Amino acid sequence: MAVISYIQAVNAAMREEMEKDEKVFILGEDVGEKGGVFKATEGLYQEFGEERVLDTPLAESAIAGVGIGAAMYGMKPVAEMQFADFIMPAVNQIISEAAKTRYRSNNDWTCPITIRAPYGGGIHGALYHSQSVESLFSHVPGLKIVMPSTPYDVKGLLKSAIQDEDPVLFFEHKRAYRLVKGEVPDEEYTLPIGKADIKKEGEDITVISYGLCLHFAMEAAEKLEDEGISTHILDLRTVYPLDQEAIIEAASKTGKVLLVTEDNKEGSLMGEVSAIIAEHCLFDLDAPVQRLAGPEVPAMPYAPTMEKYFMMNPEKIEKAIRELAQF
Amino acid sequence: MAVISYIQAVNAAMREEMEKDEKVFILGEDVGEKGGVFKATEGLYQEFGEERVLDTPLAESAIAGVGIGAAMYGMKPVAEMQFADFIMPAVNQIISEAAKTRYRSNNDWTCPITIRAPYGGGIHGALYHSQSVESLFSHVPGLKIVMPSTPYDVKGLLKSAIQDEDPVLFFEHKRAYRLVKGEVPDEEYTLPIGKADIKKEGEDITVISYGLCLHFAMEAAEKLEDEGISTHILDLRTVYPLDQEAIIEAASKTGKVLLVTEDNKEGSLMGEVSAIIAEHCLFDLDAPVQRLAGPEVPAMPYAPTMEKYFMMNPEKIEKAIRELAQF
Amino acid sequence: MTSKRHEELGLSDEQVLSMYEMMLLARKIDERMWLLNRAGKIPFVVSCQGQEAAQVGAAMALNTKEDYLLPYYRDIGLVLGFGMSATDLMMQGFARAEDPNSGGRQMPGHFGQKKNRIVSGSSPVTTQLPHAAGIALAAKMEKKNFVTLVSFGEGSSNQGDFHEGANFAGVHNLPVIFLCENNKYAISVPIEKQLACDKVSDRAIGYGMPGYTVDGNDPLAVYEAVKNASDRCKNGEGPTLIETVSYRLTPHSSDDDDSSYRSKEEVEEEKKKDSIHTFSKYLKEMNVLTEEKENEMLDKIRQIVDEATEAAENAPYADPESSLKYVYADKDGEV
Amino acid sequence: MTSKRHEELGLSDEQVLSMYEMMLLARKIDERMWLLNRAGKIPFVVSCQGQEAAQVGAAMALNTKEDYLLPYYRDIGLVLGFGMSATDLMMQGFARAEDPNSGGRQMPGHFGQKKNRIVSGSSPVTTQLPHAAGIALAAKMEKKNFVTLVSFGEGSSNQGDFHEGANFAGVHNLPVIFLCENNKYAISVPIEKQLACDKVSDRAIGYGMPGYTVDGNDPLAVYEAVKNASDRCKNGEGPTLIETVSYRLTPHSSDDDDSSYRSKEEVEEEKKKDSIHTFSKYLKEMNVLTEEKENEMLDKIRQIVDEATEAAENAPYADPESSLKYVYADKDGEV
Ligand SMILES: Cc1ncc(C[n+]2csc(CCOP(=O)(O)OP(=O)(O)O)c2C)c(N)n1
Ligand SMILES: Cc1ncc(C[n+]2csc(CCOP(=O)(O)OP(=O)(O)O)c2C)c(N)n1
Ligand SMILES: [Mg+2]
Ligand SMILES: [Mg+2]
Which value does ipTM take for this structure? Predict the structure, then answer.
């Protein structure tokens, strides 16, 4: 087992899939010679050549759309959106085309594309380099949305996404890229898309989260352990379609549930998680389902004062868990 | 009081606002000489001239984007998306620009645009002329989303939307256009954006819905009245930001809540409504919050067999209310 | 049309006859759809009328056994050329389970049939242009020598995806043909309100590709332009933009009333150029076609359309529950 | 540069001196930002270096008291021309509450200042082009005679919004100037991988507007082109596309390392054409500028930049809770 960073896991997953399958190729802005603005594709251009690691014109609808066409033909494109915020011009291609190809053709045509994008804040990225965009898509049948928290999950799930026969949006927290490190097996492995994962067993409070917030929750839980509050932590990993069974089980286990997302609250996918719990676990609940989320403003500001105010952190989660424990 | 149709209310609201305020103008595909593919802008081109009722090139990002520019300058554009399904190419302009203009400029610039679009199914429109797209936007601070059910609400709320100092998405159910008729005062009036409306008082079951489904719920409720089931019906009207107070009050009143949307279920804005109830009314609930919605498929199929299977109707609601009553 | 233009293009008499026959078949299928619509049997029609020459001319210039086609909703002539049958077309008109395009899920005119390399399309216009670039990119990567043709209206050439798709194809020098079927209207909006350039093909230079405008009522002119573009593709010379100018002879669709935005006179004037008549005239002048042969053709086509209609009319809809199928691969067949 | 070109353009010696001074000011502000960034005082810089001539030349050709500007992130020269101060710019560099662009909410380079008609912009590139068309449409509707100038990079000219915005302006014959600042790279991607046409201005014909490519290192050439375009606007002749060709002399931003994708030699070669030197040389050859005057200018600018830096460095951040403000009109001031 080697210890690698979150972004190294992204890079390794793509490299392995490209080595295995000639149909896998990468396209996006600056993914070639430069290796991507975050270096996610570092070395791949050098290893696989410019035909399989394509620097595209600055045009996201084409990045998605060309990838979709290639996928319909039978290739396995991995398209990069430079920042999740810049997926917006590609929404029509993703929602009208990728998500609906199989369904509209009555299973005649398929669209096995993977679209990767770095999301999330806490990196002085301001309004347009910090957004969480998952809730925009976590309502669109035909899509799958993966948002891993650890290098182990990143690697196993990105490989599964690339192999998947349907379109997968793969959102990587850009602050996790270098911050988060973890063990990854030397031998090849994949992980199932659609399955949540218990990251910590506990008895008193259930925290459900994903991505970078998962780590904040783990930190908070560790601190609270000393105070005698035992936290059960479920990592959604795939945020659409949700792993309802795992959510119901985790919520029922403690009867007190805290949902944590960096995204703003109203309309975030945590509303759906809460609704699933409300539908299935009403009589197991000892307290109202709580959601901890960003404020209802259009996006995260730049100045450090305001960014910190918006951004999720372990202290906010700790406080929320403590309050819930006292309910 | 005159009885007019839903689409006549749309038309009348625009006409009145254009008469009152020279800064109001309309732009969109086929809105001019033809008067719109649904005739929502009928007669306006003839009355106000081609400078205030602009047929645009077939390009939704420009329709939104040009409207946004004009709004930033100080005009009051009313942009039409021919079908809500075709708002997708304009998502970047709506989410990145319209929604964030005031916030990003620290209140220096504003964007008072109204974007109208016909949504919804049941008209043999198939996958791309039947979608409900509200959940795509019902998570974006800076936007307001209005989805009225009656001609009275349409007229009062569309006038408010046009007068509003911020961007408003105004979604009209296309099957309601000619199906739904109702009384509208002769004198001028507006209705407040952001306020839900009790459409029927009842004691046993609370139904929360909006748009065309509201009428289906009313029909179902009427039938059930004879069986002795009394239904309380709340019309959201503004689906973003939600009127939390009204939702909490309506849910608490009966303790048994059914949420109805034509949209598919997972990730729909009814998840948020359910989450609000779960957060605030847990101990007032006598049954799990139920959601009745479309199936988890990309969009509504064309063939009448399949369309009927997907589409909401009074019978489905009646059944769900009855089940909840028996819980 | 005095010299044997088709011979100069290397087309035999037989070939131009089958060209004409396919144009006629497209027209007759379309006309039948309108009848069925007016009789209340099918809820929606969107027409090829006025564009048959462009569509069939283009199809005949391609290798319909290898090339890829991304058509738009009017392209009955193109999909017939690529192997879709009259029965297939009627099945989609009636939204039957056997519709090979979508099993009745999509509206008529949303073509797609993998076995014939007709790539599934949607309703939002112009999304197919980047797809075509993607398929052509795959061809290049896989060192396959097929051509990809994508078609669209002149109104649709104003969408961002036109620009992004054409630019991508230009930069990567891809074997793709952009066929703009200019019929002078986008629903009610006339071309002057859609674009300010003289010709849609003026846009080609902006993508580093040649652009040609040809008479869309002349199947031979279209054949020639597409043939040359296809040769360019195969020689690694990259994409071409071709604009075919004709006229939409019907309302936009069965839901449209065109009298509110254009005059009867204008339509009548344009009908004089209708390729069905002008090409028939040419063939007769060239002694390739006779009145008698033409009537035989019409009889044959009537029979084909009758049989297709009957088959489709009697075919079942898909099961309601089947609408739950094929959202994802792993749900195939699950209901 | 031997005849008095600026006189031929109707520019006085004083005017070209202030042109040069504004170019220098832009450069010096930019250089200071880099120093502050390297010293860890500001987290991010995105530069105008190499584009000052184009920006200042354009600004001087406009009526900066009436016209509207939709700049992009490199346009220090343009926003200075429209009245933004060095202190304003430093306030945004430091993300202070007093930043007139956004109160510290946006990253540096996201300009917007209503009192100077500098229209607020975002990060997703090219969205400002349709906005510019919208403002120009409003001008036309309100019968105002101002001009709207919108700028963007050559990479950004490949976005759908370029096409849709330019087309709208073309169809409605709007008084807008599209200024493409071609600096040969979009981050790491060289122009050959961005577009296949020879010149970005080749795209103009596709929108029925004239297109010009001028030397972006020559402020007089840019002045002339923009002046002519502005005259066209005012005469009701519609939009113009102008491409200014220069070079990005710095890495893309403070987060970029350009050595991974371009050679030092290439950059050195381009530096020889740096307008700050070539225009200084021209002015000296014309006896408009002397070594002494230039040093005075530099001293004055240094002082301005020092004072701006100090003011900004000592200014406070916005309150954390103020991030809740200004989502909607009715929430103004509420926290
Ligand atoms: C993105 C999008 N916007 C709007 C529509 C509605 N619509 C369908 S066809 C059409 C006109 C298309 O005109 P053109 O491209 O010239 O093709 P034509 O119908 O004339 O062949 C419009 C506006 C759509 N299908 N997609
Ligand atoms: C829609 C969108 N996609 C990607 C980016 C990231 N990005 C910022 S600047 C840039 C390159 C812009 O190149 P160009 O338009 O040539 O302007 P330049 O920076 O060279 O002046 C990219 C890709 C963005 N800001 N917006
Ligand atoms: Mg047309
Ligand atoms: Mg550039």
Answer: 0.98
